[in-house]
Amino acid sequence: MRKIGLQEVENIALGASLLGAGGGGDPYYGKLMAIGAIKDCGPVTLVSPEEVPDDAIILPIAMMGAPTVLCEKGTAGQEYKVIYDMVSQYLGKSVYAVMPMEAGGVNSMLPIAAAARLGLPMVDCDGMGRAFPELQMVTFTIGGVKATPMALTDEKGNSVIFNTITNKWTEELARAVTMSCGGSVTVGLYIMDGATMKKYGVKDIVTRSEMLGKAIRDVKMQSDITITPEDAFLAASEGYRLFKGKISDVLRETNGAFNLGHIMLDGIGDYRGQKAEVTFQNENIAATVNGEIKATAPDLICVVDAETFVPVTTEALKYGKRVMVVGLKCYEMWRTKEGLALVGPRYFGVDTDYIPLEERVKGGNCSV
Amino acid sequence: MRKIGLQEVENIALGASLLGAGGGGDPYYGKLMAIGAIKDCGPVTLVSPEEVPDDAIILPIAMMGAPTVLCEKGTAGQEYKVIYDMVSQYLGKSVYAVMPMEAGGVNSMLPIAAAARLGLPMVDCDGMGRAFPELQMVTFTIGGVKATPMALTDEKGNSVIFNTITNKWTEELARAVTMSCGGSVTVGLYIMDGATMKKYGVKDIVTRSEMLGKAIRDVKMQSDITITPEDAFLAASEGYRLFKGKISDVLRETNGAFNLGHIMLDGIGDYRGQKAEVTFQNENIAATVNGEIKATAPDLICVVDAETFVPVTTEALKYGKRVMVVGLKCYEMWRTKEGLALVGPRYFGVDTDYIPLEERVKGGNCSV
To answer: Which of A160, A172, A181 shows the shortest C-beta gap to B161?
Structure first.
């Protein structure tokens, strides 16, 4: 158990933008909400999974919808209270703590804001270890945990409770309501007890995110002159360098509450004369170098600034920007058969078997 | 208080197909459900609005979606129980009776099936006095009654509870879920107390529907030879004859869970050489004779077989069919400013002020 204050929020937000793998929304907007809530209500208590009683009720809180919409539409402020009241009334039980369901992107920040405003602790755990575009894509689905009862509310005051036969149906119905509500809403889902959280959750992910953020911030200040900032960044993040290049084309469209598209890259430095492509569906889902796939979901494909190593979300991709493409290993549960059925490359329309990142890069000019 | 058995269901269904004004779905499928439920569970008790205590909870039950989808997709049977349980649990109160919200079309029948299966009485009242395509189009909206909390369930077992800021928002969100569920679902909405039902409802509409059905059935058996069957039908239904003709063209499309389209008519008999058009959005919304509008929503525009006077729903409109177009006056509350804002011709895209049916037909060759 420890406190999350303003400095911690800054680092978690930066780490979350790396774990977002290009998606999950720029944490910046969520960070403002978390900072506002902490200034109003004081720091948030972060509890370790092991500190949570087995029978305690955990309420994961998230935004659902297109990150680009979220940035413009915003929230009204009362959403967390509405979700909390809906869930408490529906279950007839009190909620012990909130939790992120998605450690990557803006959804890393909203549970902090919710915890501060509701006066509840937040659990150091999530259901992805990164960001994913659909709500059934969580480790809890592998564990057979139901997404419902799920509470949804918009900034206007409309609210909905779902009970569905599968988590894919939750996604279908909640996505339809999200679009009707204007493209982004606040949700409470995968309400579970402490025992379930400990069994299937990605533990200590908030702390890992904070460490990653701190590493990016510190990389240029390191005193060891025998190592380049780039190598220091790759060592701290345990990342694989897949490509370095200048963005030569960006294709982006908002379709069915998703941001879809790709970027084309012309190599720079060691990669001069080479070409790469990164495709995304909210998150980056495949990286191809010289026509050869170097990484696919569920491994994390992160596009970072070539000089500062600050992660670039898909919304911020621009022609001419110089970036490095980095691969990070996904949480081990995603590499099981059940995990790959949910978030493997074929689910996203990439016609290849999943091969772990570290095997794809072997023998190529990628480096760890 | 009286019993609704198989013979009453037959007459109510026939009357409901006239009150459906072409829409609301062919009551045939609903009739089979009502008959099945009465055979399984016995006749239904129909209670007059005045017999209902002011504080009793009334649960209107309906199908939401496109009638053409409903006929093919069907229901699983457990829906009424699911809705009843959701509402009882949510309110923490027991339901006194069910009620139709829409006396026209298939939604006249489903509350009978629900009442039989749930062992509850049904109230002789609705919120339209006809059929309309959207759920906020009820007299209760004029009275400021909220459509929510609204319960929705599909035949697969998914269920949703809505709470919205306006009844138009209920329509938006529930329609989105209805489409995601395949185009038709079962709903419980406008849950209200007896006092509210008595204040804003269209009272005794089930009895009127039954009387209309009986009149259509009896019209050819009447013994008064001084009056033609057609005149007998118009007298019994208090209908205005707008046109008689042969259908020369049918345009139909399913769009956003609605059936949209129009029919063109070539006059027969007294109308030979004349042309007419009836446009519909689930229900018939405007009738034009020789380029002049003769009737618009919210008045009822009914297309009936030219010989048998059996109403023809929009799904059953076919090239070559000989029909009579009949206008019926709508419930008086629809003719107020508030009523016309909800269901006036302009809401349906017909660019004309509302003029009551009986004034539009004055001086023309329409007859009562």
So the answer is: A160
B190-202 average pLDDT score:
97
Distances (CA, A) of B153 to A21, A214, B27, B57: 37, 48, 21, 20
Q: Tens of pLDDT along A120-131?
A: 999 999 999 999
Q: Determine, yes or no, domain membership for B210.
A: no
Mean pLDDT for chain A? 93
Which of B82, B159, B170 should one mutate to test binding to chain A, selecting the residue with the greatest count of A CBs within 10 A?
Answer: B159
Query: How many C-beta atoms lie closer than 10 Å to residue B347's C-beta?
Result: 17
A94 and A233 co-located in one domain: no
- Contact criterion met (CB < 8 Å) for A176 and B172: no
Over the stretch A124-157, which tens digit does the pLDDT of each residue have? 999 999 999 888 999 999 999 999 999 999 999 9
Contact state of B158 with A173 under an 8 Å Cβ cutoff = yes
- Chain B hits for A176, CB-CB cut-off 8 Å, are 176-177, 179-180
Q: Tell me how far apart the alpha carbons of residues A3 and A165 are, in angstroms, rounded to a whole number.
A: 38
Residue B91 contacts A, CB cutoff 8 Å? no
**Quick one: B150 and B229 in the same domain?**
no
Considering only CB atoms, A161 lies closest to which of B160, B164, B181, namely B160
Which of A158, A165, A175 is nearest residue B173 as measured by Cβ atoms?
A158
Q: Is the minimum CB–CB distance between A91 and chain B shorter than 8 Å?
A: no
Confidence (pTM) = 0.85
pLDDT digits (tens, 9 = 90+) for A152-183: 999 999 999 999 999 999 999 999 999 999 98
Q: Which residues contact A75 (CB under 8 A, 6 or more apart)?
A: A33, A155, A186
* Mean pLDDT score, B16-43: 92
From B160's Cα to the closest Cα of chain A, the distance in A is: 4
Q: Do residues A246 and A185 share a domain?
A: no
Cβ contacts of A89 within 8 Å, gap of 6 or more: none
**A62 and A191: one domain?**
yes
Helix (H/G/I), strand (E/B), else coil: B325: strand
Please state, rounded to an integer, the average pLDDT across all residues of chain B. Answer: 93
Which of A175, A205, A235 is at the close of a domain? A205
- Is the same domain home to B17 and B160? yes
Mean pLDDT of B291-313: 95
Which chain A residues are within 8 Å of B173, Cβ to Cβ? 158, 160, 177, 180-181
Residues B36 and B122 in one domain: yes
Choose the mutation target among B177, B181, B185, B187 for the interface with A, i.e. most A CBs under 10 Å.
Answer: B177
A161 touching B (Cβ < 8 Å) = yes
Domain membership of residue B346 (yes or no) is: yes
Q: Which two tokens stand for residue A275?
A: 């070409």
Q: Are residues A231 and A200 in the same domain?
A: no
Lowest mean pLDDT among A102-106, A249-253, A363-367: A363-367
Cβ separation A169–B179 shorter than 8 A? no
Q: Are A158 and B177 a contacting pair at CB < 8 A? A: no
B163: chain A residues, CB-CB within 8 Å: 158-160
Q: Domain of A75: which CATH number?
A: 3.40.1610.10
- For residue A324, the number of C-alpha atoms closer than 13 Å in the C-beta half-sphere is 25
Overall domain count for chain B: 2
B319: helix, coil or strand? coil
Residue of A nearest to B180 (CA): A173
| Token digits of residue A30 | 């969520």
What is the rounded average pLDDT of the residues A26-38? 91
> In a 10 Å sphere around its CB, with 0-12 CB exposed, 13-18 middle and 19+ buried, how is residue B250 labelled?
middle
Q: Residue A176 is nearest to which of B156, B169, B176, comparing CB atoms?
A: B176
pLDDT band at B60 (very low <50, low <70, confident <90, very high): very high
Domain termination site, one of B205, B240, B272: B205
- What's the domain range around B284? 225-360
Contact B158, A173 (CB under 8 A): yes
**pLDDT value for B34:** 95
Q: Cβ–Cβ contacts within 10 Å for residue B264, how many?
A: 17
Mean pLDDT of A246-266: 87
Does residue A219 belong to any structural domain of this protein?
Answer: no
Question: Testing the interface with B: which of A173, A179, A181 to mutate, by most B Cβ within 10 A?
Answer: A173
pLDDT exceeds 50 at position A235: yes
Judgement on whether residues A132 and A23 belong to the same structural domain of the protein: yes
Residue A216 is assigned to a structural domain of this protein: no
